[in-house]
Amino acid sequence: MKTPRELKVKPIRNGTVIDHITANKALHVLKILGLPSKEAAVTIAMNVKSAHIGAKDIVKIEGRELQSREVDKIALIAPNATINIVREYEIVGKGKVKLLNNVNGLLICPNPNCITNTNEPVISKFHVIDTEPLMLRCYYCERIMNNKDMETQFKQN
Ligand code: CTP
Ligand code: ZN
User: Fold this and answer.
1) Sign of torsion, CA 111 107 97 43?
2) Helices (H), 6-132
3) Which residue owns the Cα nearest ligand 1 atom 22?
4) pLDDT 10s digits, 109-145
5) Among 154, 97, 156, which residue's Cα sits nearest to residue 126?
6) 71 and 59 Cβ atoms separated by less than 8 Å
7) Which of 57, 68, 69, 111 is deepest in the core (most CB within 10 A)?
8) What does the mean pLDDT of the chain come to?
9) At residue 152, does pLDDT exceed 80?
10) Please, how many CA atoms are within 13 Å of residue 4, restricted to the half-sphere of its CB?
11) Atom 7 in ligand 1: which residue has the minimum CA distance?
């Protein structure tokens, strides 16, 4: 009888591998990165078995190294993700995303009357009041935002 050979997802040459993404969150990660786009080839693996966290998602982006602002957004939806920067097939940088106590300028407050949604030049600011599940409070209007509310509130840039 033939034994199936394991098929691994292909390595990338240059770009970013986002590993240990919370299972089933890969599509959301792509969305906040503005992917798919014309420029970058993207490989996605969802619900893959992982020794440490049971199941995980992986996203590989060819030809793009993430900016710190993008990494901070990913921390909000996949708090255990690892960011691997790849150059010429070698990992030249590996780091874990980090959820800070304050989230500045990454999210739009869901309260239409919040000062951050007017023409005033005020940058949005949320305080992390809980992590499991994630709960944020607007510094200006005190509106509470949970995991679910947050999904639609990421700034485009
Ligand atoms: N990877 C890739 N292309 C490369 C190099 C690595 O797609 N040229 C991917 C690997 O498939 C893996 C991730 O980047 O999903 C991290 O690689 P590596 O650090 O070698 O794996 P681990 O040691 O398992 O990572 P960790 O310690 O973070 O669990
Ligand atoms: Zn607000």
Assistant:
1) positive
2) 26-32, 68-77
3) 19
4) 999 999 999 999 999 999 999 998 999 999 999 999 9
5) 154
6) no
7) 57
8) 93
9) yes
10) 3
11) 11
